[in-house]
Amino acid sequence: MNEKEEYKLNTRGIRPTAMRILVLKYLTNLRHTTSLLDLETHFITSDRSTLFRTLKTFEEKGIIHKIDDGTGVIKYGLCTETCDCSLKEQHFHFYCEKCTETFCLNHVKIPFLELPKNFILKQSNLVLKGVCSNCN
Question: Model-level pTM?
């Protein structure tokens, strides 16, 4: 029943607790990103610190990535199976101004940009804004 989630957690070196399995299953079934508040609302009987630690662990182990979509609320998106969260893996995100959901556009990679000498890129963030297909 939870074999797929347990396997994914184990392959990333994460102990598959009941809460981690539930959160991973929740993230897998979403078509958009989520926030800590969304998780708190969904898992009403779980405490905030457990959910936050789960997200932190998932981020550190490359299961999810953090997104700043300009709303002031950090969102989290599920990484693809082959993602190593390196700069070459970074992709665009789309924020729908109507439903306020943020979507990972995994198939649209951020192109390589040549930076000036002695500039070191550590992170990039590109959010496209408009209306998603559900709201159009």
Answer: 0.84
